[in-house]
Amino acid sequence: MNTVYSFQATRIDGESVSLESFKGQLLLIVNTASRCGFTPQYQGLESLYQAFKDQGFSVLGFPCNQFGQQEPGDSAEISDFCATNFGVSFPLFEKIDVNGQNAHPLFQYLKSAAPGVLGTKAIKWNFTKFLVGRDGKVIKRYPSMTTPESIRKDIQRYL
Q1: Which residue blocks in 1-60 are alpha helix, DSSP H?
Q2: Collapsing DSSP states into helix, strand and coil, what is residue 90?
Q3: Of 65, 67, 105, 148, which is least packed with CB atoms within 10 Å of its CB?
Q4: DSSP 3-state assignment of 9?
Q5: What is the CATH number of the domain that holds 118?
Q6: Is this model's pTM higher than 0.85 or not?
């Protein structure tokens, strides 16, 4: 498995999808949380999605409760929170683990393809972002504190 297209994920509405359905798009894959200091990044992620979705770009949000229990809700609560508070319209998926033995296979791949600082593979916190090229291969990993707006130039470069 050498691209994100090899993986399946379950949308927040319970529908299982192959990430191959995003083939040819530039993707920003993010582990998210609703009760985190970085939660306002949802607004910036939605802004990027709106600005570039017609050019073949998508944000894929994967809620995760592994960091400070900051995503305690179920799928309906998460979906409602994101839509109500940030107008999120980009694809959201069911809550997953991104670290440990139960880490979703997609995130196992992403971490391996783009290790963090000093080669660490573990995700340190919510809102770690992975930019994935139209070929399905990881281009770059961004830490939580990297704002969506600061990724705009990279997105424009790869569109």
Answers
A1: 41-52
A2: coil
A3: 105
A4: strand
A5: 3.40.30.10
A6: yes
